[in-house]
Structures are given as C-alpha cells and as structure tokens.
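S1.2 Input.
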Amino acid sequence: MSVDAIELAEALNRSCHCIAIDQAKLERALETGPLSAGVYATIHRDRPHLFSAAPVFLAPQHLEQMQAVIRAIEDVVQTDGFRAWAAALAPEISRVDHGPRGVFLGYDFHLADAGPQLIEINTNAGGALLNATLARAQEACCREVEAQFRTAQIDAVEERFVAMFREEWRRQRGGAPLATIAIVDDAPAEQFLYPEFILFQQLFERAGLRARIVDAVALAHHDGALWADRVHIDLVYNRLTDFHFSAASHAALRAAYEHGDVVVTPNPQAYARYADKRHLIALSDPARLRAWGVAEDVIALPRAPRGKGPPRGHTSRSAWCRRASARSASTTARCR
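S1.3 Output.
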C-alpha cells in the first residue's frame, strides 16, 4: 500500500465534510419502539456530544496493520507461557473459566506518526450499537460514499450482535434455551451510555428474548440462580467497571458467577486474559515473548510504545472509539 493512501486519509480527516448526520433520520433510527421513545431528545439535551459530527477516514494500510497486531496478540494469549503469567497476576475469581469469551472485546489504537499504536485492550467496550444506529442517519455527498451505509449491512451487524450473545450462552449452557438477559451496571440510568442500554434492551426483545436493565445492587443470588425483582436471569450483559466484582454492592453477581449460576459476559476471566494493563508491557517485551515461544515475525510487529506501561492504579479510556471498524465511519465522542 502506498504512502499516498495514508496522506489521503489524513487530508480527508483535516478537511472533508462529505458525510453529515441527518437529525430527523437519527431520531427515527433511535426511536424504533416504545422502549426507546424519547431517547433522541434525551441525548440531544443531556449528551450533546455523544455522536461526533465529523467522519473519520482510515487508510487501508493502517487498518491492515491493526488487524495484524490483533491476530498476533490472539496468538500470544493462547501460549502456555502467557496463560501462566496472566493467571499469576489475576485474583482467584478471574481464574474461573466457564467458557464465554466476552462480548465486544475491543482493541483501541492511537494513530501516531509512526502508524497505529495499541493503547488499550478493552473487555468492556461501549458504543457498537450506537454506531450501528448512527450509520442509518448518515448522509453522503456521493453514491460511492453512500454505498458504505446500506441498511442491509447495518441489519446484518445487529443480527451478529445478537448471535454473539447466543454463542456466549451456548459456550456455557450448551443447547439449553436462553430466555432472559439483564443489562447490568451501577445506577444505569446515570451512565453516559445509558441510551445504548435501552437500544440493547430493545434489540434483545426484537430477537424474542426477555431483557431488563438492572442496577447491580438490585440483584439477588439464591436457590442456585441470579434474580432481579423475582425474575430469573439467565445471562448478564456486564457493563460494570468493577472487573473483579469486588465491591460489596456486587456480591450477589460475584457469588452467582463463581458458582456458575448465571452466564456473565464480559467476565473477570476475560479481563484477566486480555485487559489487565500490565499485559501491554509484556506484549511489548521481545525477550519475554521469545521465552514464551512466540515467532520472530510476531515479535517484530509494533504494539504499545515499548517500556511505557500504565502508571500504578491507572485505568485509561480510549482516545477514540472503534476507529478501525470501517474505512469511513462517524465515531462516538466518548467510550465507556
């Protein structure tokens, strides 16, 4: 891929305004059922910067580099050496593996002069369904750009989202029927991405599932099951940032997860495998990677800036959201 493609993407990011948001379309896209009635007005009033008004263009070469890094990391985390090292760092709850891999695993990159730099692996990424909804409201200046936002493609993405949750369920419960999903966070209505919780609730219900948005403190664990207001919860879509369920308010969820009485995705085991910030140091340490038997061509790939791990206690946020999801896509202004 020539450097011209990178220069073109940079030029477009500086000056192109060929994709705009049709606010009337956005309102219709957001409010497709009774559960989401009023969501558009809420976003406009309380979260005016939830959606970016500008597109982001990505050079194919940079996208390919990101995908190469992701494939390399997926190879590394499967090695016995990495697994043993990660397990030694993790608390006991993170060593429980019930089977689910974790929905919406995200690799967050920053585009530097030297190319994409991995800044975070995020097992609790938000914004995917908001971006899919936003794509329905985008207006392009020409047919070539407009073709990137065909409704059929967006419908397929949403179907894949639902399929991903069903696969998480299958990995732990096999062929048992999935009936009820709880979208769980602390004080969910106060969260910045609460509108997305509503959209997920609506998406699940369209797929024939019973869905609820639940404050973690309202969960109860008894009789070998997790409950919310006397409703048996089969699967928890976990939006908490208490990755190990260590807070007292998360005791019921912790107990149900440890006993295998509920399917949780993403979960502490996924965080320990991918998202512990200390992993960025190991993934950028050639000597350690060689000791784990990682191939030289994998070791040579650029990842995080070498020797620069996160400071103690640091939990970074993505500087931008899922920039690699398409060549040209509007991004959310903030990730959770």
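S1.4 Remarks. The CA atoms of residues 59 and 317 lie 23 Å apart.
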